[in-house]
Write a structure and sequence with these properties.
- The protein has 367 residues and is of the alpha/beta class.
- Helix 11 links the parallel strand 12 and strand 13.
- It folds into two domains: 158 residues, NAD(P)-binding Rossmann-like Domain (Rossmann fold, 3-Layer(aba) Sandwich), CATH 3.40.50.720; 176 residues, Dihydrodipicolinate Reductase, domain 2 (2-Layer Sandwich).
- Strands 3-2-1-4-5-6 form a six-stranded parallel β-sheet, sandwiched between helices. Strands 10-7-11-14-13-12 form a six-stranded mixed β-sheet. A two-stranded antiparallel ribbon has the order 8-9.
- Helices cover 27% and strands 22% of the residues.
Length: 367
């Protein structure tokens, strides 16, 4: 059992704090039992201004008071927080994240820049908590004592991996994915209204390649000092749709064992992830929920399940091509972005990777 409270909260910094995902970090970290936002980092346009003045808050409500008076630091500024959450664009993240990790910071990143680097864990704790041990390999290889980079996946890969993780026991052979991605996935201001209103755009830059590679790394197994990717074929088609939040994917999958649909639903319903993941502060009670209604999951009705951290699955039926097909939905800026990075950091805390900060009653072994 993990102690959800801690007498001393760990200072954290948020990179790209004024952007849409950066704002989600700030929102989710408000009143977090273990972490406290102590530093916010933004562009040169925002630097040296109070966060509450610099940010154009696009989420519900307003910027939390605890962050509003923090002075925004420039990207190149030295940081004192041991833990850093990155919502940087790819170009800025590629070098700055490595610089910060080399300087001793643990960087939990939502950026794509370092996801597929061999020694960087691409972490979804319920699905691959054991991949956290790559941090040891990373530190040894790079000569980092306390620093590290830990990534979470593309926001559309998240519902795919969460829905498929419970099905690995049946032997995943082939996967076909068609996405319906919310406009918030494009950041702010996102897609022009004249492009997305009354329209579906059958192209999301770069995401099809990510959907065809990232799940294989995440669903793979840690073998020695590297990840052996899941041996499966993936084909993906990505679409932008006029929905604010919530990425829906339609998945067809071929399974070697040919389970019954009752067995598949039972695998989803009983899936929890390894200890201590279910006990972490941001972990949902049920990471995967199966909805029996014929027309669910739906973005507006189901994206906030489990405080936005659960994946909703439905419409399981036979597929004439691959065997089975279903729909899965996750909140793209919570589970698919900031929320997963925070959950990753919580796992790092209880596994002893955040220096002397240890909120757990006992150190957890990912072996």
């Amino acid at each position: 059992m993990v102690n959800r409270e801690h007498p001393r909260k760990l200072d954290v910094a948020v990179l790209g704090a004024t952007g849409a995902v950066g704002q989600r970090f700030i929102q989710l970290l408000e009143n977090h039992p273990w972490f406290r936002v102590a530093e916010v980092v933004g562009s040169s346009r925002s630097a040296s201004r109070p966060y509450g003045e610099a940010v154009n808050w696009v989420l519900d409500g307003s910027a939390p008071e605890s962050a509003a008076n923090l002075i925004v630091k420039p990207l190149e500024a030295a940081l004192t927080s041991p833990l850093v959450f990155s919502a940087l664009p790819k170009e800025a993240a590629e070098t700055r994240e490595i610089e910060l990790a080399a300087a001793g910071h643990v960087v939990c990143t939502n950026a794509s820049a370092n996801r597929m680097v061999v020694d960087v864990p691409l972490l979804l704790p319920e699905a691959n908590a054991e991949h956290v041990r790559l941090v040891d390999i990373q530190r040894e290889k790079r000569g980092w004592t306390t620093g590290a980079i830990i990534a979470n996946s593309n926001c559309t890969a998240m519902p795919v991996v969460m829905a498929l993780a419970p099905l690995r026991q049946f032997g995943i052979k082939r996967i076909f994915v068609v996405s319906a991605q919310a406009i918030s996935g494009a950041g702010y201001p996102g897609v022009a209204s004249l492009d997305i209103l009354d329209n579906i755009i059958p192209y999301v830059s770069g995401d099809e390649d990510k959907l065809e590679t990232e799940p294989l790394k995440m669903l793979g197994a840690l073998d020695g000092d590297s990840i052996v990717w899941l041996d499966a074929a993936v084909s993906a088609a990505c679409n932008r749709v006029p929905v604010v939040d919530g990425h829906l994917v339609n998945v067809s999958v071929e399974l070697a064992a040919r389970p019954t649909m009752v067995e598949i639903i039972e695998a989803w319903e009983t899936f929890r992830g390894p200890e201590p993941v279910p006990q972490l502060p941001s972990a949902p009670e049920k990471p995967v929920q199966y909805l029996p209604q014929i027309d669910r999951p739906q973005s507006r009705r189901d994206r906030n399940a489990g405080n936005g951290m659960a994946t909703s699955v439905g419409r399981l039926r036979e597929c004439a091509l691959l065997g089975y097909k279903f729909a899965a939905l996750s909140h793209n800026t919570i589970r698919g972005a900031a929320g997963c990075s925070i959950l990753n950091a919580e796992l790092l805390a209880v596994t002893g990777y955040l220096a002397d900060f240890q909120p757990a009653t006992a150190v957890y072994s990912a072996q």
